[in-house]
Amino acid sequence: MAERNAQGSEGGDRGVAGAQPAPRRPTPETMLQVRASDIEPYTELRYLSKLFRVMAMMLVLLLVAEVVTGFISQGMAALPTLLAEASKLIVSAALLWAIGDLVILLIDVGHDVRAARILLGRQASHHVVPAAGTAGASPTHGAAGERVSDTGELATSAGRAPR
Predict the structure, then answer these.
(1) What is the pLDDT of residue 110?
(2) What is residue 117's predicted lDDT score, i.e. its pLDDT?
(3) Average pLDDT for residues 19-29, to the nearest whole number?
(4) What is the DSSP letter of 137?
(5) Residue 108 domain-assigned?
(6) 159 near 151, Cβ under 8 Å?
(7) Domains contained in the chain, number
(8) Is residue 53 one of the residues assigned to a domain?
(9) How far apart (Å, rounded) are the C-alpha atoms in residues 14 and 4?
(10) Ranges 32-46, 122-136, 149-163: which has the least confidence
């Protein structure tokens, strides 16, 4: 029982009714990281990439079937025709496979662009700070909206400091 009381007193005001825990402020490292929920999956594009790759594999299987059928039916006489057909099918299959790879590349580019926008927005929101000492003043304008010169003096419309 004494151990339980000692542990309870170490925790501070944890056991006090009505005491609310202090709100957790995110650290700068966690605020600038891209969360998994920030990057939505491009599920449809992944399916499209798989479709192109499956079509490429089907063309290769069609090529194998055509070569086997050509040699069985006509023997070596079918070789010139089979070479022409094989080259067409191989080029078509390679193009379909390359399109599938390009779709995956587009997905990665989309993730990078989205992550960059999120991080830039978070960084920009953290760097907007009013000038010290004047509420609502900026480095180029005073608190009342007057233009501030490069030397830090208030400038008039003619470009001279007021008297």
Answers:
(1) 85
(2) 85
(3) 62
(4) -
(5) yes
(6) no
(7) 1
(8) yes
(9) 13
(10) 149-163
